[in-house]
Amino acid sequence: MTGEMIFVAMMIVLMLLALLFEMARADLIVSFFLIVFLLTGVISTGQALSGFSNEGMLTVMLLFVVAGAIQKHGIIENYIDRLLKQHKGPKRSMMKLLAPVALFSGFLNNTPIVVTLTPIIKRWCQKNGIAPSKFLIPLSYVTILGGTMTLIGTSTNLVVHGLLIQSGREGFGFFQLAIVGVPIALLGMAYIFTLGYRLLPDTLGAKEQIREEVKEFLAEAVIEKSFEHVERPIIEAVDVSLKGIYIIEILRGDSRIFPVTPTTVIREGDHLLFSGTLNTIAAVQKQKGITLITGTDQTLDSLMNDEFELIEAVISHQSGLVSKTVKSTRFRTRYNAGVIAVHRNNERIKSRVGDIIFKPGDTVLLLAAKDFLEQHMHENDFYVVTSLAPPEALHQNSAKGWGGLGLLLTMIASVTLGILSMFEAMLIAVVLLLLFKFIDADEMLSYIQFNVILLIASAFGVGAAMTESGLAQFLAEHMLAIAMPLGAIGIIAILYVMTNIFTELITNTGAAVLMFPIAIEMATQMDIGYMGLIVTIAIAASASFITPIGYQTNLIVYGPGGYKFTDYIKVGVPLSLLTIITATLIIHAVWF
């Protein structure tokens, strides 16, 4: 290895570690290392900026707008809502629900689909005495599988398509990936409906539990002079006024009382840190002389009026809030919302609400303005999953929703027939959506997930650094040396597994961009067609089932489903093995 190769390899390892331990947002980490490679002369300015003008990346940006315009008018969630009303047992309902969702995911961005359907499915499960944990991981997995069926099913496919075109090669056909995507989607759903269903946790199995909100949040309250139990042992208050909550500690001036014993005396000005369900937190707020505080300078009372509602939101792994405290984010000013409480799966948080450091997957209970969902449903900071009163914007005009869907299908037909390129088709679609006022310019910008775009564009430059330094060729040679005794099928399997590991640890698009130059080098050295190896990367980079951090949709359902990290491993490993074996055999049969 040359010195430059060693340097690039070290930087790649540091980047992967930073992504794995979530030291910052993924897009900021990757763009930082892009700048490092540019300033050290590993890549030129043109190579560093190549991702920002790449056709695949620009197509992803336009697709965000088209998908947002269709989602805005609520046709998919209305259709799913009608399906779920015809309840005929959990397994039959799951089949009726997930089959059309898989189809939708082949043509629309799967992230907004999961964001939209999660609260609908959760409410339906609770109403019918079914554990939401039996439905939400399957929802995520099916959208991932459905996304592998077409060129636009996932941003990963479009990014790889853009890399092919940028390198002067022929890109994917619209349905080319369906050769692999359809079989793995069908087999994957068969697994989810049978063995996978049994492996899923029954987190809220009993009907009486499901009908209550059992998720425990961390909350904070201040004791006022008028509280009837001031200067009395806390056991009296717990038995009478504070039933059903767990008091973690008491903050008294500059001191902390922990653990709290039954004989601990309550005093005026004490801050109680406690955990409880949504119902018990509401009960505490009603007690005279107790005020819930929101992690900011405002109390809950100061926020509560007819213009506010309760919102439950999940912190995104790409959120700018991650690694910051509630108070330092200036949450109230930024979102016109107060943080009442925070829930972190299977972990009791011991901190004041204002001092809680946000982590990806945290569920926050907010008291927010009535227009919060409408204003922030496309924010990258969090996924809104539950609102007690969803805004009418979700059901504005179904005719426009169907019109947008019809426009998308027309553009897809033009691409399939070779009349337009995918980029040209999506550009025309966006122009028509604006022209006929299906969306306005402000909405268009709100639909684009700019942090995803920055991540994708920056990853192109990192991939170029691997190629320019010779690291991609070096890795390809050594992977071939290991796989060659196993033949072509062994090469496909090893390339798939390597890509899939990167996907589970970092991001799907990042894994695809890193592995692309390695696959091209392997094809060149073996003197074979490149398409089979590139299809392998596209499928493997999307098929993330083993961790909640590998794919956005897995993280979205993490909190609402009440899952543990190990639930993804238990259910996802068999599905990953099934996908690896099926994809490897099909790719070998078709392209080799």
TrEMBL record:
Instruction: Please report the record's description of how this protein sits within the membrane.
Output: Multi-pass membrane protein
Which parts of the chain span the membrane according to its record?
A: 6-21, 28-50, 56-76, 97-121, 141-160, 172-193, 402-435, 447-466, 478-498, 530-551, 571-591
Domain RCK C-terminal: from-to ranges:
205-290, 298-382
* Pfam families for this protein: CitMHS, TrkA_C
Recite the UniProt keywords alphabetically: Membrane, Repeat, Transmembrane, Transmembrane helix, Transport
Q: PANTHER family, alphabetically?
A: BASIC AMINO ACID ANTIPORTER YFCC-RELATED (PTHR43652)
* Name of this chain's protein: SLC13 family permease
